[in-house]
From TrEMBL:
Species in which this protein is naturally found: Tuber aestivum (summer truffle)
Repeat in keyword set: no
Gene Ontology CC terms: EMC complex
Transmembrane domains' residue ranges: 138-157
Identification of the protein by name: ER membrane protein complex subunit 7 beta-sandwich domain-containing protein
Signal peptide limits: 1-16
ER membrane protein complex subunit 7 beta-sandwich domain residues: 31-146
Region (Disordered): 198-217
Membrane association type: Single-pass membrane protein
Pfam families xref list: EMC7_beta-sandw
Chain intervals with Low complexity compositional bias: 198-207
Keyword Plastid: no
Cross-referenced PANTHER family: ER MEMBRANE PROTEIN COMPLEX SUBUNIT 7
Biased composition (Gly residues): 208-217
Length: 217
């Protein structure tokens, strides 16, 4: 039994390969040498994980990779990379396919060339650009709209009252009566609902009181 285990271990070592690749230039990354030195790659399968770092010449290598199917991921602070499927077979071949997370493992994507060429999908932005002053957004604020409406009412309401007093003599007489009473501002006592309805409220007339003499029994 020990001999069989030793033979299987030696055969696994003999069939192990080095998986190699490089970071190729692209429009999103014209010079891969600008990637941070902390950029790393992981080659994972069930119960096994290998990790390596990017070299100065933008290449990488996983040593002694046994036969099996692996997922290749790139961890980088500045760019995002798509995962790749790497299959190492017993004939000493390395086959690479495009894949994505959530995809069923038996569904293989587009076949890629070997040695592996990795290009970024998009840069990673950690900072949000602060928006400048936008007058349209300022006018859309509810508080600003309320203030503008109040200003328009303060300016236009006296003009509307003067215009109606010229047309409606009864309304004009009511305003003059209110001014004679105590010099109060007619705008403060103005009934907006009656004005919009086209009616005017007349001042209430004072009542009369009568007194009588009582008789004593």
């Amino acid at each position: 039994m020990k001999l069989l285990a030793l033979l299987s271990f030696l055969s696994a070592i003999a069939s192990a390969l080095d998986v190699q690749g490089t970071f190729a230039p692209s429009p999103l990354l014209p010079n891969p040498s600008t990637l941070p030195p902390s950029t790393s790659l992981t080659l994972t399968t069930t119960g096994t994980a290998k990790r390596t770092l990017i070299r100065r010449d933008n290449t990488f290598s996983f040593h002694d990779v046994p036969e099996g199917s692996y997922l290749l991921d790139v961890q980088c602070q500045t760019h995002q990379f798509a995962p790749l499927r790497v299959d190492v077979n017993g004939q000493g071949e390395v086959v690479v396919h495009q894949t994505f997370r959530g995809n069923e493992w038996r569904n293989k994507g587009e076949k890629k060339s070997y040695p592996i060429e990795i290009q970024p999908v998009r840069p990673i932005d950690y900072y949000i650009v602060r928006e400048g002053f936008n007058p349209t957004k300022l006018l859309g604020s509810p508080m600003v709209l309320i203030a503008l409406f109040s200003l328009v009412m303060i300016v236009m309401l006296p003009k509307l009252m003067d215009q109606r007093s010229q047309v409606d003599p009864e309304f004009k007489a009511e305003l003059e009566a209110q001014q004679r009473k105590g010099g109060a501002n007619p705008v403060a006592n103005f009934d907006v609902a009656s004005f919009l309805a086209g009616t005017s409220s007349s001042p209430s007339a004072g009542g009369t009181s009568s007194g009588g003499k009582g008789k004593k029994n």
